[in-house]
Design brief:
By secondary structure, this protein is of the alpha/beta class. It is built from 15 helices and 22 strands. Keywords: Isomerase, Magnesium, Metal-binding, Phosphoprotein.
Length: 477
């Protein structure tokens, strides 16, 4: 096979390196050759020659081969690779944090089976984005694709480690579930890595004591072809099986994990979806209370600008500082470190914990929810309703060819009756007297597709619906 011209190799690399990770279709931009070059570039950029690099992977068919290719590139540049094998993304963060070593996790998260990718961490599970090293890794890898990888004078080694039991024990040390009331939980792993981590953390598979939890498993078989449904609980169609099973089994609640099990979605005993902002508010209160009891006074909690208004209200009412941020995984990790925030919540069900190296961990958020829910007698629908006082639209995507023109239409329509904020996309907040219901909305362009993403919140359902419909009409005009 004739090697690709250097410009073609770099173009394919540019196409798969995104704002916060590497993501692409297997066999197109994402090949073992490009992954080996990325492994070499990663070691150079994070200064890992002579040190350790953790490499883990999910259950996709291409993941073991990619992990091996990355290890080849990393060891050729002098890093010692610790291969932790099958794991969830938050398990790879645990390895990076506990070993204080940079890490690469092979997963395409919730994307379909044809995709794969890499989530990178610096030592201590710190994030890497285009602005903080990922662009440099891409450029170094491009040089290696053009010119070949230069072997280090002392090549690295490859060893293996199983960190699942330590990971499970660490999470159990952060949230004690031993004293909650007995709960029946349906868990939909979507054939993703939750099928490995849930039995270890919430069950006895890792040798830990039994918890007062009866787990009803759905799709725990690891299968990167996703034979039952896509492992993307953000799409309502992918929650249907879980919602039905919760009702059929008379369960107290249901949990749904995405493909790499770093995000967790919740449904109540009636099969209703619990908004991630409600989960964020519940966990925020628990973490604020915990660190205040330990003597902390200056407490910060991060929320992105698309979470419900109730999240910052809850944080402030608890006497902590609410830090509003843009949307974005690595960005929020950086803000967690900068502010020392105890917790961070996103509208997309990413939850970040200071006690987890500032990284996100859906399993840990689920454990906090179980601890709070299991300490009282009300059904989850009632508990969640307390933390969902306002009406949210959820994220609505529209195909838009001319984003600036859509922005102009929105600004013209709302000038004089709203304030505008461009922290992340365009946030429009209604100027309303105290006697009138509040509303706000945010529109953001996708980084990878010709889409505008709309999120709307109103004091009540009628207000939210009216604003939503008006803005959609402007976007789609």
């Amino acid at each position: 096979m004739t090697p690709a011209a250097p410009s073609q190799a770099r173009a394919r690399l540019d196409a798969i390196v995104k704002a916060y990770d590497v993501r692409g279709i297997v066999g197109e931009g994402l090949t073992e050759q490009s992954v080996e070059a990325l492994g070499a570039g990663f070691v150079d950029e994070v200064g890992a020659a002579g040190g350790t690099v953790v490499v883990g992977h999910d259950m996709r068919d291409s993941s073991p081969g990619f992990a091996a290719a990355f290890a080849r590139g990393a060891t050729r540049r002098g890093a010692d690779v610790v291969a932790i094998g099958l794991c969830s993304t938050d398990e790879s963060y645990f390895a990076s944090g506990s070993m204080d070593a940079p890490a690469a996790m092979f997963t395409a998260s919730h994307n379909p089976a044809a995709y794969n990718g890499i989530k990178f961490s610096r030592a201590g599970a710190q994030g890497i984005s285009l602005d903080t090293g990922l662009a440099a890794i891409r450029d170094r890898a491009g040089d290696y694709l053009d010119e070949g990888i230069t072997d280090a004078a002392t090549p690295g080694t490859i060893s293996t480690a199983d960190v699942l039991a330590d990971y499970a024990a660490y999470l159990r040390s952060l949230v004690d579930l031993s004293g909650i009331r007995p709960l029946k939980i349906v868990v939909d792993a979507g054939n993703g890595m939750g099928g490995l981590t849930v039995p270890a953390v919430l069950g006895e598979a890792a040798g830990l004591p039994a918890l007062p939890l009866e787990i009803v498993p759905l799709y725990f078989e690891l299968d990167g072809t996703f034979p039952n449904h896509e492992a993307n609980p953000l799409e309502p169609a992918n929650l249907v099986d879980l919602q039905r099973a919760v009702v059929e089994h008379g369960a107290d609640l249901g949990l749904a994990f995405d493909g790499d099990a770093d995000r967790c979605f919740v449904v109540d005993e009636q099969g209703g979806a619990v908004n991630p902002s409600a989960v964020a508010a519940i966990v925020a209160l628990r973490e604020i209370s915990r660190v205040r009891a330990a003597g902390e006074d200056d407490i910060s909690v991060i929320h992105n600008l698309i979470t419900s208004r109730f999240v910052p209200e809850t944080i402030e009412e608890a006497g902590a500082t609410a830090v509003r941020t843009r949307v974005g995984h690595s960005l929020i990790k950086d803000r967690m470190k900068e502010t020392g925030a105890v917790f961070g919540g996103e509208h997309s069900a990413h939850y970040y914990f200071r006690d987890f190296w500032g990284a996100d961990n859906g399993m840990l958020a689920a454990m906090h929810l179980l601890a709070e829910f299991g300490a009282q007698e009300a059904p989850l629908s009632e508990l969640a309703a307390r933390y969902t006082p306002y009406a949210l639209s959820g994220e609505i995507n529209s195909v838009v060819d001319d984003v600036p023109a859509a922005y102009t239409r929105i600004v013209e329509a709302f000038t004089g009756r709203a304030d505008f904020d461009e922290l992340d996309g365009l946030t429009v907040t209604g100027i309303t007297p105290e006697s009138e219901p509040f509303w706000w909305f945010n529109v953001r362009p996708s980084n990878t597709e010709p889409l505008l993403r709309l999120n709307v919140e109103g004091a009540d359902a009628a207000t939210m619906a009216a604003v939503r419909d008006e803005v959609l009409g402007l976007i789609r005009a």
